[in-house]
């Protein structure tokens, strides 16, 4: 049983919750700051993926780990159902990333590659998606393509990390992060040059997973790019969410809709 919170504790918890879930400008800026941190940390992890784990890199990882841990603790603190919160995918990802940041100096570069799972946190929050739809017109017009591209890149990074951790040094030609990235991309695109091969059951199952899921994500991105774009604008009559960018009336119920545009010269 959790001890009952005092009035001051509850007040602080409510203020933190408003930062993560509120609609104020302050809350929006806070969520954008978290998004920028996620993006910068992912870029840093990518840039240092092939670097040896020296003292400077370990110190930088420790600093990032502190921020991730603080964010993790705050989200857990404000959660109404903490057990359910801990079961969410992005929370499990945070735990894995934190574990990799702590374990990498002792277990080596292969485990450090799991830091790239942090990419799965991009655009994960419902509240952040609402902020982007409201504030960024490019995102609102091309949401499907942007989200599909992010999902594909995230999948590539995540599978590269898993390939390196599970099979690095155990398959011919698969020794570094670059080798794992090369294998993942050639497998996903079904190119298969044959210079890196999986010779074990585990490796071949990984390759099958990369092909099946990766091709699906790639086709989803192609569909989002080449099919006519839809704008997310909820119809007040029937609730239809997707409309053509130049739509004046809802195709489902005929009600007038007002989609924000920049006008014409």
From TrEMBL:
Q: Which organism is it from?
A: Roseovarius tolerans
Keyword Glycosyltransferase set for record? no
Give the protein name, as stated in the record. Answer: Voltage-gated potassium channel Kch
- Topology term for the membrane: Multi-pass membrane protein
Q: Name one Pfam family in it.
A: Ion_trans_2
Q: Do the record's keywords include Transport?
A: yes
What residues form the membrane-spanning segments?
32-51, 57-78, 90-112, 145-166, 178-198, 204-222
- One GO CC term on file: membrane
């Amino acid at each position: 049983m959790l001890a009952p919170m005092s009035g001051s504790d509850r007040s602080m918890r409510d203020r933190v919750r408003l930062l993560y879930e509120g609609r104020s400008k302050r809350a929006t800026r806070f969520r954008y700051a978290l998004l920028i941190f996620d993006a910068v940390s992912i870029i840093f992890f990518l840039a240092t993926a092939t670097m040896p784990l020296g003292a400077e890199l370990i110190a930088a990882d420790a600093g990032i780990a502190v921020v991730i841990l603080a964010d993790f603790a705050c989200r857990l603190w404000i959660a109404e159902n903490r057990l359910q919160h801990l079961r969410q995918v992005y929370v499990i990802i945070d735990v894995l990333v934190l574990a990799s940041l702590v374990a990498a100096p002792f277990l080596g570069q292969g485990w450090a590659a799991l830091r790239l799972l942090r990419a799965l946190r991009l655009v994960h929050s419902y509240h952040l998606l609402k902020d982007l739809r409201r504030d960024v017109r490019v995102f609102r017009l091309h949401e499907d393509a942007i989200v599909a591209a992010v999902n594909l890149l995230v999948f590539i990074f995540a599978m590269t990390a898993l390939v390196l951790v599970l099979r690095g040094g155990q398959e011919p030609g698969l020794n570094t992060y670059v080798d794992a990235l090369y294998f993942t991309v050639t497998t996903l695109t079904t190119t298969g040059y044959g210079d890196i091969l999986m010779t074990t059951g585990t490796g071949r199952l990984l390759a099958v997973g990369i092909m099946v899921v990766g091709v699906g994500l790639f086709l989803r991105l192609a569909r989002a790019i080449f099919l006519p774009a839809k704008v997310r604008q909820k119809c007040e009559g029937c609730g239809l969410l997707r409309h053509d960018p130049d739509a004046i009336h809802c195709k489902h119920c005929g009600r007038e809709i007002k989609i924000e545009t920049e006008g014409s010269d």
